[in-house]
Amino acid sequence: MAADKPVTIFNLLSEIPEHSPDEQFTALLERPGIRIERIVSWGHATPDDAPYDQPNDEWVMLVEGAARIWIEGQDEIALSAGDHLLIPAHRRHRVTWTSPEGPTVWLAVHIGSPDER
Amino acid sequence: MAADKPVTIFNLLSEIPEHSPDEQFTALLERPGIRIERIVSWGHATPDDAPYDQPNDEWVMLVEGAARIWIEGQDEIALSAGDHLLIPAHRRHRVTWTSPEGPTVWLAVHIGSPDER
């Protein structure tokens, strides 16, 4: 299989965008039923009046940085590197705080059929 | 939705098993067509005569530690924290080295229909 397309190595922590008005979303892999993406926050938070309400389950890990998250029906939770959670579809949630000191890098895996997205 | 089952936070870098004869595999999420797992290596390598030859695509990221990987048709590659790659189904590969100094923690996302596994 030496003639196959070479496998390329990327790094989640490289090419971190500068601080910007919006969080930065980068798709790493898109397939039917799955999308893996990097999210870079830098002092960003989800607006109080606009929680996420997603049609698909999302598995998410904080890779670098620090954040707090609110999930409907629960107390606010502080997250640090390595913390991961599964946010069920339509469970409303907000990122209430991310560190203003530097980038917070998330890895998100969105799970579901593409028809649902 | 306050009555929904609470979302639990886990940490990928906690409860790292002690060094053991074998690599440690922990399923984090299993769904039709997707399995997310943590792999902990500690000086382990894939035997020369038993490369991986997997029926499904695998997206994998080295989260902590250091490793080298051989992928059929390519030169050996050194991996460090944050490096990620997509290993296509049936692309033979071997982890040729992982640091003996401490745990190397991988996050793997196996992609494919459960019928293929």
Q: Which helices and strands occur, and which strands form pairs?
A:
Two copies of one chain form a homodimer.
Chain A: E1 10-11, E2 24-31, E3 34-41, E4 57-64, E5 66-71, E6 77-80, E7 83-87, E8 93-98, E9 104-111
Features:
9 strands, homodimer, mainly beta, 5-stranded antiparallel β-sheet, 3-stranded antiparallel β-sheet, 117 residues
Helical content of chain A, roughly?
under 10%
Terminal Cα span of chain A: 35 Å
Based on Cα principal axes, name the global outline of chain A. Answer: globular
- Strand portion of chain A, in percent? over 45%
Q: Which two chains touch over the largest interface?
A: A-B, 43 and 43 residues
Q: How confident overall, as mean pLDDT of chain A?
A: 92
Structural class of chain A: mainly beta
Largest sheet: number of strands, sense, barrel closure of chain A: 5 strands, antiparallel
Structural notes for this entry:
- Chain A is an all-beta fold and 117 residues long.
- In chain A, the strands form two sheets. Chain A has a five-stranded antiparallel beta sheet, with no helix packed on it. In chain A, strands 6-5-8 form a three-stranded antiparallel beta sheet, with no helix packed on it.
- Helices cover 0% and strands 47% of the residues of chain A.
- The model of chain A has no long low-confidence stretch (mean pLDDT 92).
- Strand 1 of chain A pairs antiparallel with strand 7 of chain B.
Give a brief outline of the structure.
The structure is a homodimer of 117-residue chains. The first copy, chain A, is mainly β and 117 residues long. The first copy, chain A, contains no helices and 9 strands.
